[in-house]
Specification:
heterodimer, A: about 250 residues, mainly alpha, two-stranded antiparallel ribbon, 2 strands, B: about 300 residues, 16 helices, EMC3 (chain A), membrane (chain A), ER membrane protein complex subunit 3 (chain A), EMC3/TMCO1 (chain A), transmembrane helix (chain A)
């Protein structure tokens, strides 16, 4: 393995400036996103539905603390074949087409503007300004496949793939400074690019699953199979097997 | 008039922290809040930074409680100046109108907030409390029912509805509301105990049995709940005294009542009061039990 001694001015004028540039651009992105962000209008129907689903789930989990009659009454309210809530209520689902739905379009555009554009611009600028020399060495060995990707601008065949150029140092910073952003800007900050990319991959992130009907159906099934096993069946016996603990009663 | 900081020898940071504690734990000691908060605002407003706004809100609500309209008005002015279009500030203005008994104006204000933002639950609840303040309890009950149809998860609203029903003596519906609360908070002994009391008040053999069970559950969750212990004793002895029960049920309930008695006298022993001896107390409990049964319910 070739041991290369790099000029220390690389450290001073390349490595540190790239870190600072990435960090401050990230902070700037966070504030710009906050400025052009508009409040998501919450739909009354959605809030109501999510609460109903929560109530049904709690009924399943904690129904055993209620008397049998009350549990049966509530289960009947939800699951009755003719008048039950989950059977009767069908919500109209409008599939949100990203191309025609204006609010989603503007959100997407804003997201692109604040995240992708700066990354491309700065990545390109760094590639142009800091090219032609090795910047740093990653501490683990890499295969030769990574050479063209990480050593842009350096045309040495015999050079180890661990020695990387400034562009790859920039990308390393973009992802690595995420925890710094959390420390300084608090959780859920807009400078966190990897999370945004994750969001774009998993689809629209809404308060409710986009299809309430499916949620209702699965909740109905779950509630059907739940049986009522009263937790208070032998509560007196359990209580009276030992004396009550009055510690701290009259403090 | 000496200020709080001189009286109690506290600095402004401690006053601010006290206010925060009261805010987070939902205390309603309005006079104290007004005293501490007023001084904090008048003397140390600049040092508080951004905290000052939430302190303004807290002091304003406390001032409304103590009928200090001057203080409430000045707080409201400051908040309006800083947050001109805020729904939260509008709601506070509505609360001030309620305190002045100008219910129509308050209602109009709340309606305008709700037009803008239909999901604003706090404002809807304020409208219901206007109805309660005007004494229109049946309308308040109706509105609260509609509200709960849309927001089934609001526990504060369920509790309020149960109280309204108890005032109307509609114990069956109050029991339903308390069941909702018990379901969402299964480890809260106070809800179990309140539910048991409602069941006891409804009367009838099954309700008494349920009451006994839930008193026992409340005791299991918190051994020191004396009210539940007394409730357990009373429901057990009531069932035992009823002529319709089988011998086995009677025997069981007598056993439960005896156990409850022994625990009560143990509690008094722990307390160490002089006026009660072991032998006399259970007998006295029997007498007081009969008189208690004649009196209005435990609620």
């Amino acid at each position: 393995m070739a041991h290369l001694l790099l000029d220390s001015s690389i450290r001073l004028w390349v490595v540190l400036p790239i870190v600072f540039i990435t960090f401050f651009v990230g902070v700037l992105r966070h504030y710009v996103t906050q400025l052009i962000h508009n409040e998501k209008k919450v739909d009354l129907q959605q809030v109501s539905d999510s609460q109903v689903l929560l109530r049904s789930r709690i009924l399943r989990e904690n129904g055993k603390y209620l008397p049998k009659q009350s549990f049966a009454m509530r289960k009947h309210y939800f699951n009755n074949p003719e008048t039950g809530f989950f059977k009767k209520v069908k919500r109209k689902v409008i599939p949100k087409n990203p191309m025609t739905d204006t609010s989603m379009l503007t959100d997407m555009m804003k997201g692109n503007l604040t995240n992708v554009l700066p990354m491309i611009l700065i990545g390109g600028w760094i590639n142009w300004a800091f090219s032609g020399f090795v910047t740093t060495k990653v501490p683990f060995p890499l295969t030769l496949r990574f050479k063209p990707m990480l050593q842009r601008g350096i045309e040495l065949i015999s050079l180890d793939a661990s020695w990387v150029s400034s562009a790859s140092w920039y990308f390393l910073n973009v992802f690595g400074l995420r925890s710094m952003y959390t420390l300084i800007l608090g959780q859920d900050n807009a400078a966190d690019q990897s999370r945004i990319m994750q969001d774009q991959m998993t689809g629209a992130a809404m308060a409710m699953p986009p299809d309430p009907n499916k949620a209702f159906k699965s909740e109905w099934e779950a509630l059907e199979i739940v049986e009522h096993k009263w937790a208070l069946e032998n509560v007196e016996e359990e209580l009276m097997c030992q004396d009550l603990n009055f510690r701290g009663l009259f403090s | 008039m000496s200020s709080i900081s001189e009286l109690y020898d506290v600095c402004w940071e401690e006053m601010r922290d006290k206010l925060r504690k009261w805010r987070e734990e939902n205390y309603r000691n309005s006079e104290q809040i007004v005293d501490v908060g007023e001084e904090l605002i008048n003397e140390h407003a600049s040092k508080l930074g951004d905290d000052v706004w939430i302190i303004y809100e807290q002091v304003m609500i406390a001032a409304l409680d103590c009928s200090r309209d001057d203080l409430a008005w000045s707080c409201l002015q400051e908040l309006k100046r800083q947050f001109p279009d805020s729904h939260r500030v509008k709601r506070l203005a509505g609360m001030r109108l309620e305190a002045l008994e100008r219910y129509e104006d308050a209602n109009k204000l709340y309606d305008s907030i709700l037009q803008d933002d239909p999901t604003n639950t706090v404002t809807r609840k304020r409208k219901i409390s206007i109805l309660q303040a005007q004494g229109k309890s049946s309308e308040a009950i109706r509105e609260l029912n509609e509200y709960l149809e849309q927001f089934v998860g609001d526990q504060e609203a369920w509790h309020e509805l149960s109280e309204l029903y108890i005032n109307e003596h509609d114990y069956a519906k109050a029991a339903f509301c308390l069941e909702e609360l018990m379901m969402t908070n299964p480890h809260n002994h106070l809800y179990c105990e309140q539910y048991a009391e409602v069941k006891y008040t409804q009367g009838g053999l099954e309700n008494l049995e349920l009451a006994r069970k839930y008193f026992a559950q409340a005791l299991k969750l918190n051994n020191r709940n004396m009210r539940a212990l007394f409730g357990l004793y009373m429901s057990a002895s009531h069932i035992a005294a009823s002529p319709k029960v089988s011998a086995k049920v009677k025997k069981d309930n007598v056993k439960y009542a005896a156990w409850a008695t022994s625990q009560i006298s143990r509690a008094y022993q722990v307390r160490g009061t002089q006026e009660c001896t072991l032998g006399v107390f259970p007998v006295r409990l029997e007498d007081s039990c009969h008189t208690l049964l004649m009196e209005p319910p435990l609620l």
